[in-house]
Design goal:
By secondary structure, the chain is mainly beta. Helix content is 3%, strand content 41%. The strands form 16 sheets. The protein has a seven-stranded antiparallel β-sheet with strand order 1-2-3-8-7-6-5, with no helix packed on it. It has a four-stranded antiparallel β-sheet with strand order 9-10-11-12, with no helix packed on it. Strands 13-14-15-16 form a four-stranded antiparallel β-sheet, with no helix packed on it. The radius of gyration is 27 Å and the shape is globular.
Length: 861
Amino acid sequence: MKPRIILFALFASSIFSYAQAKERFVKNQNISSGSAEILLGTVKGQEQVVQMSGTRKIAGIYPHLTTYSQSRKDGKFFKDGHQECGIGGIIPWADNLWMITYAPHKPRGSDHKLYSIDKNMTMTIHAESVGGTPAARMIHEESKQLFIGHYVIDARGKVRAISPSKMPARVTAFMRHLKDPENYVYLYDMENMFYEVNVNTLEFKKLFHDPIPGYHGKGGFTSQGKVVVSNNGEAMSGHLDKPELWQVSKEYTQKSSEDRGCLATYDGKKWEVIERRQYTEVIGPQGVHPTSKGKNDPVWAIGWDKRSLRLQVMENEKFTTFLLPKGCLNNDAAHGWFTEWPRIRDIGQKDLLMDMHGMFFNFPKDFSSQNCRGLEPIGSHIRYIPDFCFWNGKVVLATDEASIQGNPLVGQPQSNLWFGDFEDLKSWGPRNAAGSIYMNDRVEGDVPSDPFLINGFPQRIVHLVSDRPVTFSLEVDRKGNGQFEKYKKIKTGGYTSHIFPKDFKGQWIRVVTDKTCNASVSFQFSDDSYRSSAQEDKLFQSIADYDEANPRSALLFPNAHNRHLSVLSSDGNAYDFDHVTFKFDRLNKEPIASKCISPEASKRWGPKELEKTLREFLTPKMEYSVDEASVILISKENRSIVGQKGNRTVLRLPKGPSVYDNSLSFGHPRMHREVESERMLANIHGTFYEVPFWIVGQAPLYTKMRPVSTHNKQISDFTTWNGLLVLAGLKSNTSPSSRIFNSPDGKTSLWLGGIDELWDFGKPVGVGGPWKNTKVKANEPSDPYLMTGYDQKTLILESDKDCTITAEIDIDHWTGFHPYKTFSLKAGKKKTFQFPDEFAAHWIRFKTDKEIKATAQLIYE
């Protein structure tokens, strides 16, 4: 169907009254794939996209709802300072779903937009957009207005904006006013600036510029006569931190190595620091629509330190601490940038939904210190989720998918929404998590620890370490009423562990030692229902298996010069995959890298690199090696992050089929790529892994990786684009479908889906270890071998001499390796050890008491 162009006039009352003329482009593919439509208008003298509509839906994602950091007709990305386009806030209001996007650091505004989506999935870009770095949203009950970023929207959808040039702020929270909540709200920003805004006139006054320590302001909420605010990092540049303006003691400048971020209160007269730890969400039971009826409600604040998640509950102006495990380690950086924005929100269920560190939790609406039952894990995820809500009968997740900050493999930033059901969240990643109460910390005898969540995890083990003989008493709150009873006493003078029985019942657990010591107490939790690889057949049946001949492979690049996806097939053809029609447009010649990548990325490369074709620029290289024992990976991360020296760590990972030992028919598959903002997805020897960053553009933290799924496919490249996960490397006889898109010449194909469908490939599996017929020196530890995230684990040991081999495990990423079990071996005799189902650790290594030729192999299945 040829595009239709429609010109029409508009009445002054139209929501597009700012547009001088319009063009409507209607582009269809076919009924099964859906259609999309773009409306253009003149905005501030420039032709821009002003409305998008469509019916195409893939894996809960409507591609036409993709947001970009610019709305130009030609789709070209060119502006500095616009390297990110996360969706900072979403909220139902005035019959629509409203949302805002953010730049990385633009307190005075940017080209980012205010959007509304109606129930027909038509998305409007509002002319009043002022951009910036917003994430705040709150419904003001008395005036019946939505406050979202710099915008105020009445019950009919009329938009007013506060100019960010007049009120510069990276708006992160709105709160009810302590003295005049009918006429004012508080506004809090990422630099800790604290304003009050008149809800009627929108006049504003800055009350404090930087009242508290820490940086990267996050949540805020008012209850019990106090405002509670949080920030989740430390300023990387000294000029951003202003102790001379603090409203608390300057003694907080004398911080320890763990003092980062802040949770604080303000009672209208005095500021008080509650804790110098990294906190994000601060909310109460009424959520984003607080009223006077909730003026004495509890306040919940969620944060973390290196050990675990930290949940603070304020009741009667006093705080109680709870600890929870982490699903991943993507958010842990000291600067706090990688947590936009964990939330606790209503999604139309009995419980609220909490998202933190890559894991969803059910969060009871009446949670308090004495009514703390029912908080439990739902499952893990890969998506970077700044906000979520319930709208039009669906759970809606916002994302921050493609940032170009330190990421040369995306041309322009973009993000989208996911629409689905609550039950879908349970079908993504497993309930795997880990966390600690202590990490080689000084522990006072006979003093109970903070309670640690144990409810809802099917398989549970606790690792215990002390520097002297002590007795650990484990105490359990079975009913979630704050009352603890004795469960078990465990004596140790070093390392030991305890596996909780399958029928163990309890909500929270805490630890008491009988004497003062240095101790580590680390929990590892895992699921008991991993997804089998046999379940992935239908969804991924078109992707070429590892032994498939002649796959349709390609390299992929989301362009900067338009919104299309560059597809470079292995036979030398080049295409643009159209972002509206989802059709291939074959190019006459290979695109040049400098024409496709962003201006930001261009600054990092010399002229020789930029003169390359895009294909040359994108071609992957082998970045790991393989020996007889396993995959060998050199991690170049800065080890000072965990208090160690160096920036080169040899790691070992499981093997898949031997075909991955060398290049495939099309060359090397891409090993890693940033497919969700500020974290890496790695594809190594047939398995996908998630890998955290510490600083964007620097080496990822492979020591803190977690496996996602084993695919054993010939995936030549992968990326996120238009809100979708795109995989290349399909079978040559693939038929088109709502997921499969073939080029008209039959030379290449693409698979499209959602990022969290990667779990559907099936659980991670593989075989390997640090040794296989390897000459080993006495008392010299092997390289670490990955253990976290795998289901059934079997160890096979063999030696050419009688010897003793000790298995050592990393239980927390920080305190080193601890002896788990010692095995006595006879020369030439294999010893097989089946780890208990509940056993879990991050890494494992081995040592022997003699110089031998040894095998230490682990089978994960």
